[in-house]
């Protein structure tokens, strides 16, 4: 028996995986995980196989000695261990200083898996204080354009599993959190390029993105969003644009990280902000209603 990512797998299920491996001696680890997903009908809301999670489960069973996986056929670089620096993309850096009204209408483009994704990555790498890090799991990337020029970049990704201020604000049980965490998106990056000086642009973009990301997330991943969240390092920033866009201050992080071996802070303490996407967000997140 094994507990993996909050779910317990029985001896019978482990025996099924062991037999699946025996019945397919020529299959690779990836092929075996896909066969297991198909056998268990383990799919995401958008119909895609839960292949990455399944491979993680099988590897955990292999390492604990409960199954014997075939030797890996390809050993790549661990994307979590080596941070790939994206190449820089040339962009118009002429100073842009005007009012929000003078800036005109804005265009919001989702750029993940498009040619413009390279520009998004470049802008974050060069101008965001945290640089660019490729999100893991569900995520979307946006560039905001005024005419032909990008004036903002922001992303949304899967939410962290444990976040005390958020969990207390929602009031859900551990079981509800495990079931419905996918209905929360985390905003890890938001950038206004330094040559863009337009008062109130940041809060205006955040307000518009609330509606856009909710629609796009359901189109991409097949399930709705009910809540957004972000962190603000208030040693560096005040988070004024988020509060002006009606995001709520929920509390602070502990500064320890999810794998901390000490009760003392090991990183900067950040403010936690959230944005409910529905008046019924607590009911939807606590009970799984759409």
Q: What labels describe this entry?
A:
34% helix, alpha+beta, two-stranded antiparallel sheet, 290 residues, Aminopeptidase, 2 domains, 11 strands, 10 helices
**Structural class by secondary-structure content:** alpha+beta
From the coordinates shown, what is the CATH architecture of the largest domain?
3-Layer(aba) Sandwich
Task: Give the proportion of residues in helices.
Answer: 25-40%
Q: What is the name of the CATH superfamily of the largest domain?
A: Gcn5-related N-acetyltransferase (GNAT)
CA-based gyration radius:
21 Å
Shape: globular
Biggest β-sheet strands, sense, barrel: 7 strands, mixed
Average pLDDT figure: 89
Say what oligomer this is: single chain
Number of domains: 2
CATH class of the largest domain: Alpha Beta
Largest beta sheet: what is the strand line-up? 4-5-6-7-9-11-10
Q: Measure the end-to-end span.
A: 33 Å
- Low-confidence residue ranges: none
Order of helices and strands: EEHHHEHEHEEHHEEHEHEEH
Total of DSSP H or I helical runs spanning 4+ residues: 10
């Amino acid at each position: 028996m094994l507990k993996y990512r909050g779910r317990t797998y029985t001896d019978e299920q482990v025996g099924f995986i062991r037999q699946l491996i025996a019945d397919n001696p020529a299959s690779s680890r990836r092929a075996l995980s896909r066969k297991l997903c198909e056998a268990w009908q383990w799919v995401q809301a958008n119909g895609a196989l839960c292949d990455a999670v399944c491979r993680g489960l099988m590897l955990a069973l292999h390492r604990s000695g409960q199954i014997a996986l075939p030797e890996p056929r390809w050993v790549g670089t661990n994307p979590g261990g080596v941070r790939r620096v994206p190449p820089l993309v040339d962009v118009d850096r002429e100073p842009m200083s005007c009012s929000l009204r003078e800036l005109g209408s804005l265009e919001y483009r989702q750029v993940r898996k498009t040619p413009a994704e390279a520009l998004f990555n470049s802008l974050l790498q060069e101008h965001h204080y945290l640089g660019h890090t490729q999100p893991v799991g569900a995520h979307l990337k946006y560039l905001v354009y005024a005419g032909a020029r990008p004036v903002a970049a922001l992303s949304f990704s899967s939410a962290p599993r444990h976040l005390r201020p958020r969990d207390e604000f929602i009031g859900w049980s551990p079981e509800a959190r495990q079931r419905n965490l996918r209905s929360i998106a985390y905003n890890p990056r938001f950038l206004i390029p330094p040559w863009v000086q337009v008062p109130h642009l940041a809060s205006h973009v955040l307000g518009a993105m609330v509606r856009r990301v909710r629609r796009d997330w359901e189109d991409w991943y097949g399930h709705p969003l009910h809540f957004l969240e972000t962190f603000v390092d208030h040693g560096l920033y005040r988070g004024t644009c988020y509060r002006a866009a009606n995001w709520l201050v929920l509390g602070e992080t502990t500064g320890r990280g999810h794998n901390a071996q000490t009760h003392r802070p090991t990183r900067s303490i950040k403010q936690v902000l959230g944005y409910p996407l529905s008046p019924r967000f607590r009911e939807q997140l606590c009970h799984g209603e759409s």
